[in-house]
Amino acid sequence: MIEVFGDECSGNCLKVKWILEYLHRPFRWTQVDILRGETRTPEFLALNPASQVPVVVLEDGRRLAQSNAIVLYFCEGTPLVPSDPFDRARMLEWMFWEQYSHEPYLAVRRFQRLYLDRADAEIDPRLMERGTAALARMEAHLTDQRWLVGETLSAADVSLLPYTMLAPEGGFSLAEYPGVCSWIARASTALGIDAKPDGDGNGASDATS
Q1: How many domains does the chain have?
Q2: CA-to-CA distance for 103 and 143, rounded, in angstroms?
Q3: Which end of the chain, N or C, is less packed with Cβ atoms under 10 Å?
Q4: pLDDT tens by residue, 75-99
């Protein structure tokens, strides 16, 4: 059976959990507590020297890390990966952008605010500025598009969903982004996740710890 090592407080881990559930792939979840330093133990470092979750151990013992690489691996051969080469490249464009220009701001601000209990004044203001810019870019795209790529859910939507949906926990108000809110609702429904954005900025999901 597939084994996933992850922390459910992490959006990167949630996307792996959600895609396996969506694809009806049986898996065993091993909780790794980031806050308690469990990614830095000798046992975990032997599993992933990068000291990061998620990590997936496949049925044959091979290991795979990096959330979007894992998502793409499981999505291959399914309708979640466009067959058209250009649309596939656009899907990857969004997935690369998520890890470089989205997650580093929305996720980091959420972590500092929610888990490190830092006041807004103690958090680097650039995180809010750049996180807001990321949400604005998504809003501009989703104002007249139902999905990030093509006419249906893709791996790009799975990649962007967790930390966008959880953005209010980082102090970002989603009320200003109706297109993003509608997309969150659509993607959540498609994935079978009982989670909807709270537009007033108080946010929440039953998937958070």
Answers
A1: 2
A2: 21
A3: N
A4: 999 999 999 999 999 999 999 999 9
Same domain? For 57 and 117 the reply is no
Q: Are residues 96 and 136 in the same domain?
A: yes
CATH assignment at residue 107: 1.20.1050.10
Greatest CA separation for the chain: 49
- pLDDT, position 8: 93
Alpha-carbon gap, residue 75 to 80, rounded angstroms: 6
CB proximity list for 195: less than 8 A, separation 6 or greater: 165, 184, 188, 204, 205, 206, 207
Q: What is the pLDDT of residues 179-204, one digit of tens each?
A: 999 999 999 999 999 765 454 433 33
Q: Name 84's Cβ contacts closer than 8 Å, sequence gap at least 6.
A: none
